[in-house]
Amino acid sequence: MGKWVYLFEEGNASMRDLLGGKGAGLAEMTNIGLPVPPGFTITTEVCNLYMEKGEKIIEELWPMVLENIKIVEEKTGKKFAAKSGLPLLFSVRSGAKFSMPGMMDTVLNIGLNDETVELFSKESSNPRLAYDSYRRLVQMFGDIVLDMGLQPFENELENMKAKKGIKYDVELSAEDLKELIKRYFDIYKRFNKEFPQDPFVQLKMAIEAVFKSWNAPRAITYRKINNIPNDLGTAVNVVTMVFGNMGNDSATGVAFTRDPKKGDKGVFGEYLVNAQGEDVVAGIRTPKPIIELKKEMPSVYDELLKFCKVLEEHYKDMQDIEFTIEKGKLYMLQVRTGKRTPGAAVKLAMDFLNEGLINEEEAILRVEPSQVDFLLHPRIDVSSKLQSIAKGLGASPGAATGKVVFDADLAAKMSDEDVILVRPETVPDDIHGLAAAKGVLTARGGMTSHAAVVARGMGKPAVVGAESIKIDLKERLFTVNGETVKEFDVITIDGTSGNIFKGVAPLIMPELSEDLKNLLSLSDKLAKIQVRANADTPEDAKRSYEFGAKGIGLCRTEHMFMAQDRLPAMQEMIVAETIEERKAALEKLLPMQREDFYGIFKEMKGYPVIIRLLDPPLHEFLPKREILKEEIAQHEKNGEKDLVEKKKRLLRRAEALKESNPMMGFRGCRLGLVYPEINEMQVRAILEAAAMVIKEGDKVFPEIMVPLVGHINEIRLVREKLEEVAKEVISEQGIQIPYLFGTMIELPRAALKADEIAKYARFFSFGTNDLTQMTFGFSRDDAESKFLPVYLERGILPVNPFQTLDRDGVGELMRIAVERGRKANKELEIGICGEHGGDPESIAFCYEIGLDYVSCSPFRVPVARLAAARATILAKRQYEADK
């Protein structure tokens, strides 16, 4: 164990791990010549030792503390525990590596007792200041150090103000405060506690209390929410007290070197004359804007602006500063990188770049991908007073307000109004209602449920799996926690947090600023991994292109068959009993598919488009058997014989296609092997659409994906058959059409046998949603609704593997597939098209293992573009650091 205590002048900004953020900031300001009250920092390592070994560490530490107190006494000309003269007082403040505002403890005015308060009163010529400071110490010490709680002291304070007929603490006189202190000591007696009159004992106990606060429940919760490790520990800063409440030439305040809300230039903040820092936070008086300091204390104002400029240029970022003015002298008490809104983060990054303070790489690293995501979706105004009535899974980000409707047909009819589609769960038949609604809420389902996937693809907010909601479709209402919401009542859903609100919550609509556009262009310039989009329609493709996608990484053809005008033809194909009947139905679908592909190719303007052949089980395109039985009974009752036979035929086919485990059943390439005419129609539609685009003088590059391949013979047989179709189309069209055949790697066996599969595939695309399910043996919907939250809470899994790639398991399979696939086929193009393609942590892993691109929903493309650039930069820096 090395040095345990550092004077401020002995540290610097690079020592955050050891000194914490606050200590490192105080040290850096001291070293660049700014006026910082003298003091010292006890390192985070001491905190961790204390957690391990307890009080004996405090005893080992104590001689070092005493040694540093003497140095501070020499600097200030004051004595701690003084018998004469103005006494030296300390504040004891926490300070972890990462800012945890308000989560740990601070004790002010350490060193006051019954004797030193009299000295303080006399030497400062300000009895009220002295006794108010003592009152605060007695209160804070009882609450924080002796764990007596704040409320008993607050009650006595309120009683005293009521007795005096006053409203504010500052109206209490010195005599009032003396009386209040006596009452506070009575509280100590009731708790069988004693306030230590020895200043050194006060200091020792306060230091220990700050260490203990690292493991306070609120601190633990904050770290969990913000992914801060539990083993960092907190430093303890012992700082000479300075007072902003010594008169009208004293003040305390907070300043930002630029506007933290918008990012505009200029110093922003507030201050209070004749006050202590906690008064600003507590709202005892209304703070004044910083600009008014120019009138009240012009020389101090000029000095503050100068210091703000010095700190901003020194740290090359917007800074958050705490300051105190004591009798006209300015002191800097804290500096840290200022918290900012997502919009301000983007503006500040580009402004600092344009001003030459940072380079392009640093500008990219200044903005978190989550901040870009926040800017792309409507969001609930945080000032809203609405209370959440229920919560589900936030499946598609953004917020939406609208009238509740309980069926897709009604949602479509009300397409000119704002509606929220509320269903127990959605099915393919609901697609028109989803398209018309502003958002969707379901009582069942998980993050890959139909509602979740479709909503994300459309960029619509979705809350799924809100199991506390009880939907009564017959009565057209839902109930939750004693609340009843009827059809056409207005609700607001937050697809980011999963919260549901009754009524209208104020929404802030997104705008793509010029700064954000420039930041994303810069991201494309620096990124070494491409970003494509998952897009199923020409409209999706257009949006993807506008958001900067460099191609389509997944076009799911099954979504094209879900439209109301196409589903009958699809169902006709499914119930066909002969090849001829099936081909006749497919002939109806061919021009529809060709039109879709043509529109997508045109919108992507020559960028590659990966089209997945039909993947889901055929029964997903049929009505549910229970619904069919009800419809048959109704048609029989009405004497509608033709409809009865039609529905019975559908029911027979639905019964035949019923599977115990559809996810692992008759789907993917298995469909194409049993019914090759389905794949043949789709490949013909793809290449005929491509030919149309080429004949119009435009570029096109289709890539045809065979899904769910696990064995070399599957891809070999499917490709051989489809190559024949390709040759036919090229011959018929009389032009060369560029195309590739490839596959989705979504089965563990496919990853392990990638070298064999690569002989028949020109590209791989990892389908990590299914690959994760297959590798873990999890059903995602069941896992997320039943046991995965427990796994995360208990630390069985570090993160939800469906949101962030499991590097050790699923990631290892991906790494194997990349290495073996490229060894067998050096020209193999490899990407990812699962939802992980839009997750920044997963994108970094994809770059690490050498993928060529990631693909995500259109509305995640800007997020992925920034994440791709950040992954490139951070990997480069890590490589340079390791050399």
Automatic annotation (TrEMBL):
Keywords: ATP-binding, Kinase, Magnesium, Metal-binding, Nucleotide-binding, Pyruvate, Transferase. Mg(2+) binds at residues 746, 770. One of its GO terms (molecular function) is kinase activity. It holds the Pfam family PPDK_N. The keyword Mitochondrion does not apply. Residues 17-61, 64-297, 303-350 form the Pyruvate phosphate dikinase AMP/ATP-binding domain. The keyword Zinc does not apply. The active site is at residues 450, 833. Substrate binds at residues 556, 612, 746, 767-770. Its cofactor is Mg(2+). Its EC number is 2.7.9.1. InterPro entries: ATP_grasp_subdomain_1, PEP-util_enz_mobile_dom, PEP_util_AS, PEP_util_C, Phosphohistidine_dom_sf, PPDK_AMP/ATP-bd, Pyruvate_phosphate_dikinase, Pyrv/PenolPyrv_kinase-like_dom. Residues 416-498 form the PEP-utilising enzyme mobile domain. It catalyses: pyruvate + phosphate + ATP = phosphoenolpyruvate + AMP + diphosphate + H(+). Residues 513-871 form the PEP-utilising enzyme C-terminal domain. Catalyzes the reversible phosphorylation of pyruvate and phosphate. Belongs to the PEP-utilizing enzyme family. This is Pyruvate, phosphate dikinase.
